[in-house]
Amino acid sequence: MTTAESSSQPGALRRTVRRFDGSALYIFTALAVVYLLLPVFVIILFSFNDPAGKTNTTWQGFTLKYWMDPLGVPGIANAIFLSLVIAFISTIVATALGTLIALALVRYEFRLSGATNALIFIPMATPEIVLGASLLTMFVSIGGAPFFPLSAFTILIAHIMFNISYVVVTVRARLTGFPRHLEEAAMDLGANEWLTFWKVTFPLILPGIVAAGLLAFSLSIDDFVITNFTAGKTQTFPMFIYAKNRIGIPVQVNVIGTIIFLIAVGTVGVTTLARIRADARARS
Questions:
Q1: Which residues of 140-167 are buried (b: 16+ CB within 10 A; e: fewer)?
Q2: If we measure between CA atoms, which residue out of 128, 222, 116, 92 comes closest to residue 169?
């Protein structure tokens, strides 16, 4: 081996390492995304499966019959409807309260604001099984309507409680770095605080509010642990899936899951575009 050849090898090696360093982040990100989405792809794939028995774990053949009748399993329609109603109401209430709390924490200094910040994170940091058992104990201790016997109302109270924390954190992130000079300009032009909020503040933070609402809706509709402690004889969609798991989850569950996933992806896409446009308006 000549001297020129030996000196060129370290240079080629360094160039290869530099190229790998530049693309390593993209490679690892792609692998992480594939890892996260692989179970979703399996759900979508097996929503078109035609299993021979009750267990939908082995690919038997392609069919669309379950997509033609996604509510064909007894009890699934009532479970889905109840989950949607609870998720919708809890999202509305938690988003409204969480947005107001986030505005108060970001905009104003008041006594015990630090303690309030810490308390907001407690429901997020507490294990769900502990939170569910605590709520069950509280409802049983009250021992009277509407908190006992357990019902859809107690599920709703529980979902609002843990959703508020996620809404506050999400909206606070949106309020960080908010262009306050736009509000000041509106008030200089004669707008009062109420009009300034609806005409300036609210449109700019709306993408963050929508993102918080979507997160709260997702957390509510798929919660099982806390719901199982506070449901009593009520059965939501996750509890329906758990009950069916003992004898075999029907293909319709995969169909409903695929529909929910597609709706969520579409909504997130629309929200992302709205946030980009709002940021562009704020910069201009």
A1: eeeeeeebbebbbebbbbbbbbbbbbbb
A2: 116
> What amino acid is encoded at 17 in this protein?
V
In the chain, the amino acid numbered 274 is A
Tens of pLDDT along 69-115?
888 888 899 999 999 999 999 999 999 999 999 888 887 777 777 78
Strand partners, 62: 49
- pLDDT bucket at 183, cuts 50 / 70 / 90: confident
Burial (CB < 10 A; 0-12, 13-18, 19+), residue 222, is middle
CA nearest 51: which of 252, 270, 267?
A: 252
CATH top-level class for 65-283? mainly alpha
215, β-bridge pairs = none
pTM over 0.85: no
- Is residue 209 a contact partner of residue 98, using CB atoms and an 8 Å limit? no
The C-alpha R_g of the chain, in whole angstroms, comes to 25
Yes or no: say if 208 and 171 are a contact pair by the CB < 8 Å rule. Answer: yes
Q: Which structure tokens are listed for 277?
A: 């446009």
Sign of the torsion formed by the C-alpha atoms of 166, 168, 169 and 172: positive
Q: Name the one residue in this structure whose structure tokens are 């267990």.
A: 55
Q: Which of 151, 137, 166, 168 is nearest to 85 (CA)?
A: 151
pLDDT single digits (tens) 217-273: 989 988 999 999 999 889 999 999 888 888 888 888 999 989 988 888 887 788 778
Q: Is the pLDDT of residue 59 over 90?
A: no
Sorting pLDDT into bands at 50, 70 and 90, what band is 174? confident
Domain ranges in the chain are 1-46, 65-283
Q: What are phi and psi of 181, to 5 degrees?
A: -65, -25
CB 222 within 8 A of CB 238: yes
